[in-house]
Amino acid sequence: MRVLIVSDSHGEGALLREVVDREQADHVIHCGDFCTESAQLPGGWITVVRGNCDWVEVPWEARWEGGGIHFLITHGHRLQVNSSLLPLQYRAQEVGAQIACFGHTHIPMSEWVDGVLLLNPGSLVNPRGGFPKPSYAILETTGREDVTLSYFTPDGERLPGLGGKFPVFARSNPP
């Protein structure tokens, strides 16, 4: 399974469609702040949540299951991700999610904490926090033991030093 995870595209519907078309993922997750009419979002297999800058009525939070993995999708502002990832981690554990996808900070990151992969794809158009390039993430299952997470720029250039392999099926901290 191949999942494209994006966030904070802030009205750049054409760029979002370009990335979706190029990546040919089995599923697309948008973590909010798409800032377009829902008709401008790519069609197909997409789970989208509402961010603090969105006006379209979509859920604030969603859950999706694919390949035996349970995902929590949220923008993150309602869980105060700028201050701490602990509320996000607790919410993921509360709903039984192995992966919690969020945006809002515009900073790409992935962290394995107490059986939950916390994953922010960064912003598709406006990086922050000293990160020099816009980004998105691709998550791929590599069997029944772990997943591989990679980060890319909108033009498809791989971003080294981000992502890795995570044992989301084990529900324990990696070695």
- CATH architecture assignment: 4-Layer Sandwich
Beta content comes to: 25-35%
Assembly classification: single chain
Rg over CA atoms: 14 Å
Report the sheet with the most strands, covering strand number, pairing sense and barrel closure.
Answer: 6 strands, mixed
The counted number of beta strands is: 11
Secondary-structure element sequence?
A: EHEEEEHEEEEEE
Using the coordinates above, name the CATH class.
Alpha Beta
Which strand order spans the largest sheet, edge to edge or round the barrel? Answer: 3-2-1-9-10-11
Question: What would you say this structure looks like, in words?
Answer:
The chain has 175 residues and is α/β, with parallel strands linked by helices. The protein contains 2 helices and 11 strands; from the N terminus they run βαββββαββββββ. The protein has a single domain, classed as Metallo-dependent phosphatases (Purple Acid Phosphatase, chain A, domain 2). The protein has helices at 13-23, 86-95, and strands at 2-6, 27-30, 46-48, 61-66, 69-74, 99-101, 109-113, 116-120, 136-141, 147-152, 164-166. Strands 3-2-1-9-10-11 form a 6-stranded mixed β-sheet, with helices on one face. Strands 4-5-6-8-7 form a 5-stranded mixed β-sheet, with helices on one face. It is globular. The model has no long low-confidence stretch (mean pLDDT 92).
